[in-house]
Design brief:
Blueprint: H1 2-26, E1 33-37, H2 44-60, E2 64-68, H3 75-82, E3 90-95, H4 96-104, H5 112-115, E4 116-131, H6 140-149, E5 155-158, H7 164-176, E6 181-184, H8 188-197, E7 202-206, H9 207-215, E8 220-224, E9 250-258, H10 263-277, H11 280-289, E10 291-293, H12 298-319
Parallel strand pairs: 1-2, 1-3, 5-6, 5-7
Antiparallel strand pairs: 3-9, 4-7, 4-8, 4-9, 4-10
Helix pairs in contact: 4-12, 7-12
Length: about 325
């Protein structure tokens, strides 16, 4: 009899608890939300994190605060996010850096597919290969010829190991059969500055951040990395068009949360992100910058992340890419 009463009490308590949980999740957010950006300020991830933070704040009525935690090729900030409470109040602004690092840096303190709940992708953009004007190459084939004549002497900057800029260079080296020296920085702004000043010969950089420097003549744009030419730099042909067939490398961005974050919160954020990136004004603004919105459900994005991890594992293996 006593067991029966205890069971009845437990059922009654559970019945009362369910509406309370649902109510708490519907009220999300009721305090500020932090977006950890594991990259330095002024790069694409930081810029679009701040853009999304403002739009999410406007939509949901609570502050969304960007917290830059760069270092170790995004490992430091990503680990901090993985170890945060799974309550929806700490999010991670990620890129394909994280999917690359799953194979490039296997001994990490987290596993991307196990320790995070993908929320939504945000956008992608092509990269552009630029050289300092002092480099004696005015086309991609001239650069390849120069690199073959001087194995390992040309260098390329990146925003850190495993970043799209790094892997674009490694993939190019492999497919063009050339040797170049990788110089990793702690952020894309520092890498960009040294290419502009001539301290480093070249880099693959996001079209969204390098296009103005190309137009100003501060660097020479040799090729873009997409399947087709970028609308922002339509006069610059792709790597593939210039003889390195089937070459493709982009940078994409997305939001994740610590694993265990309530599904209702993940879906709420996914809905709001998709509303923002599909709005006419955002599409128009991003088109001028060379960024393309990526709209997916949370389950579709989870599948996309897993497939990207697998894709880059293959590229890391065949290219011989290493974390410098």
């Amino acid at each position: 009899m006593q067991v029966k009463h205890l069971f009845s009490w437990a059922c009654a308590a559970a019945t009362l608890l369910v509406p309370w949980i649902a109510s708490a999740q519907q009220a999300y957010p009721n305090r500020p939300v932090k977006i950890i950006v594991p990259f330095a300020a002024s790069g694409p991830a930081d810029n679009y994190a701040r853009f999304m933070a403002q739009r999410l704040q406007d939509a949901l009525g609570q502050p969304f605060v960007v917290d830059n935690r760069p270092g170790a090729g995004s490992i430091i900030g990503t680990d901090a996010a993985a170890k945060s409470p799974a309550d929806g109040y700490t999010l991670l602004m990620m890129s394909n850096t994280q999917t690359v690092n799953e194979s490039l840096i296997p001994n990490k303190p987290f596993n991307l597919l196990k320790d995070f709940a993908p929320i939504a992708p945000i956008n992608y953009s092509d990269l552009v290969l630029v050289v300092n004007p002092a480099v004696n190459a005015h086309s991609l084939q001239e650069l390849i010829k120069l690199a073959k004549a001087n194995p390992g002497k040309l260098n390329f900057a990146s925003s850190g190991n495993g970043t799209p800029y790094h892997m674009a260079g490694e993939l190019f080296k492999h497919m063009a059969d050339i040797q170049m020296t990788h110089i990793p920085y702690k952020g894309s702004a520092a890498a960009r500055t040294d290419v502009l000043s001539g301290q480093v010969d070249m880099m693959f950089d996001a079209v969204t951040t390098m296009a103005e420097n190309i137009k100003a003549g501060k660097v020479r744009g040799l090729a873009t990395t997409g399947r087709a030419r970028s609308s922002v730099t339509s006069d610059i042909s792709t790597v593939s068009e210039q003889g390195v067939a089937k070459y493709e490398a982009v940078i994409w961005l997305g939001l994740m949360a610590p694993a265990g974050t309530p599904e209702a919160i993940v879906n709420r954020l996914n809905t709001e992100v998709n509303k923002i990136i599909n709005s006419a004004d955002v599409k128009a603004t991003w088109s001028k910058q060379g960024a393309v919105p990526m709209s997916m459900s949370a389950p579709a994005f989870t599948k996309y992340v897993a497939e990207d991890v697998a894709k880059w594992a293959t590229i890391v293996k065949v290219s011989g890419a290493k974390a410098d």
